[in-house]
Every structure is written in structure tokens, then in C-alpha cells.
Amino acid sequence: MRYDDIIEKRIVDKGQHIMTLEFSRDEFYQSYDEYSNDIANQIVNNHLNKRGDDGRASNVRIEKANENDTIRIHADIEYEGNDHTTYE
């Protein structure tokens, strides 16, 4: 999966970060063959690692492709009290 093709959107409300990653169904199926929250968690952690982002993802959930063939992954991102995050 080419992480440079992911569109990231964030909402920050009272210190709570909510992130949405968007990418094409074709891009997803180049690397994965099924939808699952475990795969979504892997994609989110790889994305954060690639960006050097110290946030910790929780409540990660994947939304199957819509009529525009776009897949969305939603996650809450925590920063408070974090030490440097490792993604291994």
C-alpha cells in the first residue's frame, strides 16, 4: 500500500483528536484482501509511523468502500501522557 496516497483528515475537539484516513478501494486491494479492524489498526499505525507522529490510536474502525470506491478508517488519537510511541 502506498501511504503517500492516503488523505488524512483530523478534527480536534477539546484536546481529543479524531483522525480519518481515506484511500481508494483499488489501493487497499493491492495489499489486503479483506476488511477488518485489525488490518485498519495496522494501516493507522504504519501511517502514523511514516509521519513520525507520536499519537496512539484507539477505537480504530474501518468503513467499507462507498459508492465513490473510497475506504475510510476512523481512529481516536491520544497524545497526553505519551512517551515516544513505537510501532513494532
Plain-language structure description:
- It is a single chain.
- The protein is of the alpha+beta class and 88 residues long.
- It has one domain.
- It is 23% helix and 38% strand.
- The protein has a 4-stranded antiparallel beta sheet with strand order 1-2-4-3.
Topology at a glance:
Elements: E1 7-13, E2 16-24, H1 25-29, H2 37-51, E3 56-63, E4 70-78
Antiparallel strand pairs: 1-2, 2-4, 3-4
Which key phrases capture this entry?
2 helices; alpha+beta; 88 residues
What does this entry show, briefly?
It contains two helices and four strands; from the N terminus they run E-E-H-H-E-E.
How much is the average pLDDT? 89
How are the strands ordered across the major sheet? Answer: 1-2-4-3
Number of domains: 1
Total strands: the figure is: 4
Please report the distance between the alpha carbons of the first and last residues. 18 Å
Instruction: Report the uncertain regions.
Output: none
How do the SSEs run, as a string of H and E?
A: EEHHEE
Helix content: 10-25%
Strand content: 35-45%
CA-atom Rg in angstroms: 13 Å
Shape: globular
Q: Helix/strand-derived class?
A: alpha+beta
Question: How is the main sheet built?
Answer: 4 strands, antiparallel
